[in-house]
């Protein structure tokens, strides 16, 4: 029998590892017939919110952005999406970015559809209008090698433009691939494993990680990862970018 008093999840001042075994569901107004798990939030010290939405029969996600922008990524399943009057079909690997001050509707969700969501308070930049609504498909985005290492590939899902103050990237590591150095940086991360497994080092502590796990890394949380197992390890992650730190 499994021992229910054990978990791989940890929540610390500079980082958290959240495995699905600890999920307790939330209700979010406007997100109807959906199971919602708020995985990363201000309540743990983060400056982003990372949410996982799983549709039940009749699942529907509607709302409006105010001070926060929102990024939706379809992990599996599909739905019809509308944002600021623009419509598109979302299926596995497709995404929708909704800037501040817009409405959104994700409807006709196939039961079981899973959607990852990042919210961040938008920091305006003088001289630049806030970004537009963006629909995209990760399958159509190039994944060049990362820092010249053919075992690592990085896809940048949002435009690299000063109007954006957040990035969302997909990082793929062949088995045995690893970050080339221990990163120590001011940017914060929220991430979700889409595939595979490996070992993450967070502030000199070592964690086995696999598909379905999430990680929060506060600014300056030291980080390094190596992929293990028979298939590439893939994670999608958030990063704050393009703004002066004070
Ligand atoms: O973009 C990044 O900072 C990325 N290389 N960090 C990470 O994967 N932990
Ligand atoms: Mn990093």
TrEMBL record:
Entry keyword annotation includes rRNA-binding: no
Keywords: Hydrolase
Keyword Metal-binding part of the UniProt annotation: no
Gene Ontology MF term list: ureidoglycine aminohydrolase activity
SUPFAM superfamilies referenced in this protein's UniProt entry, alphabetically: RmlC-like cupins
InterPro entries named among the record's database cross-references: RmlC-like_jellyroll, RmlC_Cupin_sf, UGHY, UGlyAH_cupin_C
Classification via NCBIfam families: ura-cupin
Protein name: (S)-ureidoglycine aminohydrolase
Lineage: Bacteria, Pseudomonadati, Bacteroidota, Chitinophagia, Chitinophagales
């Amino acid at each position: 029998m499994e021992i229910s008093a054990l978990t791989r999840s940890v929540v610390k001042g500079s980082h958290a590892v959240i495995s699905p075994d600890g999920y307790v569901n939330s209700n979010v107004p406007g997100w109807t017939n959906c199971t919602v798990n708020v995985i990363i939030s201000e309540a743990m010290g983060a400056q982003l919110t990372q949410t996982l939405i799983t549709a039940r029969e009749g699942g529907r996600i509607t709302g409006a952005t105010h001070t926060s922008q929102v990024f939706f990524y379809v992990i599996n399943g599909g739905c019809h999406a509308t944002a600021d009057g623009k419509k598109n079909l979302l299926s596995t690997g497709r995404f929708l970015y909704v800037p501040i001050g817009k409405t959104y509707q994700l409807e006709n969700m196939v039961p079981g559809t899973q959607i990852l969501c990042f919210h961040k308070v938008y920091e305006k930049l003088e001289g630049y209008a806030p970004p537009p609504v963006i629909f995209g498909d990760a399958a159509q985005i190039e994944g060049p090698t990362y820092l010249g290492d053919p075992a690592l590939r990085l896809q940048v899902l949002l435009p690299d433009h000063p109007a954006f103050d957040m990035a969302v990237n997909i990082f793929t590591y062949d088995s045995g691939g690893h970050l080339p150095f221990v990163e120590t940086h001011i940017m914060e991360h929220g991430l979700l494993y889409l595939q595979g497994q490996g070992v993450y080092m967070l502030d000199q502590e070592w964690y086995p990680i696999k598909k379905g796990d999430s990680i929060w890394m506060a600014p300056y949380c030291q980080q390094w990862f190596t992929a293990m197992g028979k298939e590439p390890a893939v994670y999608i992650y958030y990063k704050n970018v393009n703004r002066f730190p004070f």
